[in-house]
Design goal:
Layout (H helix, E strand, L loop, with lengths): L8 E3 L2 E3 L6 E5 L6 E6 L3 H17 L7 H17 L1 H12 L3 H22 L6 E2 L6 E9 L2 E5 L5 H14 L3 E5 L6 H13 L6 E3 L4 H10 L5 E5 L2 H13 L4 E5 L5 E4 L6 H13 L11 E5 L3 H11 L21 H16 L3 E4 L3 E2 L7 E2 L2 E4 L6 H4 L6 E7 L2 H9 L6 E5 L3 H10 L4 E4 L32 E9 L2
This protein binds nicotinamide-adenine-dinucleotide.
């Protein structure tokens, strides 16, 4: 069956063109072929979507359902995502260039799991009674916040959308989702699936469009109660300003990173450290917010460790993302590829030593591919060590003492993730405690589960996706006092 791609927005339960009829062209980074035209949303489209969301919320078509009913619908939603897994995976891979095996086995499964987990959780969450004086009763309850605006990036389009949609829906909110203009297709399909699952019209609206044209009106909208944003730190700062400028909506920002991965000389399994270090920076073409882009290695094992690390690189040879054996796909677009190549040039210019990669490849395809790139002799003040590259570029920094490693690791405006490799349990705890990051791994980098919060310290953002803590972002806390006598 041929893939039919529908680029129209989903507003109030219907596929619609943008109000002014404008579209933008959607190209595949695999070979730069045009996939479809996509509705280019602007203020007028956002207004329609927010009105639909507000109307659905006020009518309580979803918010008024019992937690058990919402659970059942969300489980059906998750099941339908899995039933549509091949189409969703194909859309994701064509649209943003990640390997099809990752789209199929990771992105689709994790998106469905997020919906299922929050659906299953919501009829098991209790409210509180406060320990107030005898003649009173004070109930502390969580209520849906109302209309949630979600703005998501292009690197895990379906998954980032579901990390927002799942807790927001489970708590009874209505949503307007603005996917990235670089990868809008899976979010649109997911909105169709939500309707099929029984989520009422107007509860999940998806308006594609550019950041400044569709994202800003959503962040500035005075009838939106909360904006859940995932993207760059630069845009996250604007989102906070827009929230303040408009109605002081809650603004939750999940932002960039420059995560350190610290390998001490007493690490028990250097092979595993090399495998995880390479896997975590080169997975998803390095386009992961929590990718450990700074590898801090203790001087005495540096040569041995680098040898092991370089031996991992053939496992990340860029290939056709539609081929099931490919482990590294295309960069999301030409602009992102050029950005990454500029960072590589700056690394060379500032004196880092290129050990591998550093160049574009598969140019004959018309697509945008970069070889896995490793720099040695990086200092923490070089641009490649300070700025988020968001590509397959690893910077190796050498250290001599634990104090020095901690200092370098924390010497960044970001604080999303970190790792420490050592067999000394005291050292592991001590370093983990002092690392200023939302997630710290010990002797691993790649653990992940929906049960744990995900988010950052410092300029990596605020708020947390995943886990029951995510429900806090999408609910208001209400105290109801009852006088008993
Ligand atoms: P981006 O900030 O450029 O865009 C993110 C979203 O914001 C897109 O939908 C975009 O259209 C929209 N946007 C852009 N300008 C806007 C504006 N002025 N007003 C409103 N919306 C606007 O980021 P990106 O390039 O799509 O994604 C990469 C970034 O996302 C990286 O920094 C990465 O670290 C971060 N990220 C963070 C997490 C996390 O959980 N912390 C997860 C994934 C990605």
């Amino acid at each position: 069956m041929a893939l039919k791609i529908d680029g129209r927005a989903v507003i109030n339960g219907k596929r619609v063109n943008s109000v002014d009829g404008a579209t933008f062209e959607c190209f595949s980074p695999i070979d730069n072929r045009k996939l479809c035209d996509v509705a280019s949303g602007k203020s007028a489209d956002i207004d329609l979507a927010v009105s639909a969301a507000r109307a659905a919320f006020n009518a309580r078509t979803w918010a008024g359902k019992s937690p058990k009913e919402r659970k059942q619908t969300m489980i059906k939603f998750a099941d339908l995502i899995l039933q549509n897994r091949e189409e969703l995976a194909l859309l994701e891979t064509l649209d943003m260039g990640k390997p099809i095996t990752a789209s199929l086995n990771v992105d689709v499964n994790s998106a469905a799991n997020s919906l299922r987990w929050f659906g299953e959780a919501i009829d098991k969450v209790y409210d509180e009674i406060a320990p107030t004086p005898e003649h009173t009763l004070a109930m502390i309850t969580r209520e849906p916040i109302g209309v949630v605006g979600a703005i998501v990036p292009w690197n895990y389009p379906m998954l980032m959308a579901c990390w927002k949609i799942a807790p927001a829906l489970a708590s009874g909110n209505s949503i307007v989702l603005k996917p990235s203009e670089k990868s809008p297709l899976s979010a649109l399909k997911i909105a169709d699936i939500a309707l099929e699952a029984g989520i009422p019209a107007g509860v999940l609206n998806v308006v594609p469009g550019y950041g400044a044209e569709a994202g800003s009106p959503l962040a500035l909208h005075t009838d939106v109660d909360c904006i859940a944003f995932t993207g760059s730190t630069a845009v996250g700062k604007k989102i906070q300003i827009m929230a303040g400028q408009s109605n002081l909506k809650r603004a939750w920002c999940e932002l960039g990173g420059k995560s350190p991965n610290i390998v001490f000389a007493d690490c028990k399994d250097l092979n595993r450290a090399a495998e995880a270090g390479a896997g975590s920076i080169f997975y998803n073409q390095g386009e992961s917010c929590n990718a450990p882009s700074r590898l801090l290695v203790e001087r005495s094992i540096k040569d041995e460790f680098i040898k092991k690390l370089l031996a991992e690189l053939p496992n990340y040879k860029p290939g056709n993302p539609l081929d099931a054996s490919t482990t590294m796909g295309a960069m999301v677009d030409c602009g992102q590829m050029e950005n990454v190549l500029k960072y590589i040039a700056s690394g060379k210019a500032q004196g880092a030593k290129l050990l591998s990669g550093g160049d574009q490849t598969r140019t004959e395809t018309g697509g945008f591919y970069i070889n896995p790139t490793v720099f040695d002799n990086v200092t923490n003040d070089m641009t490649i060590a300070t700025e988020e590259i968001f590509g397959p570029v690893l910077s190796i920094i050498t250290f001599d003492t634990m104090e020095e490693a901690i200092k370098i690791a924390n010497d960044t405006p970001y604080g999303l993730a970190a790792a420490v490799w050592t067999q000394d349990i005291s050292k592991a705890h001590m370093v983990a405690k002092r690392l200023r990051a939302g997630t710290v791994h010990v002797n691993s980098y790649d653990e992940d589960d929906i049960t744990v919060p995900f988010g950052g310290y410092k300029q990596s953002g605020n708020g947390r996706d995943k886990s029951l803590h995510a429900l806090e972002k999408y609910t208001e806390l209400k105290t109801t006092w009852i006088r008993l006598s």
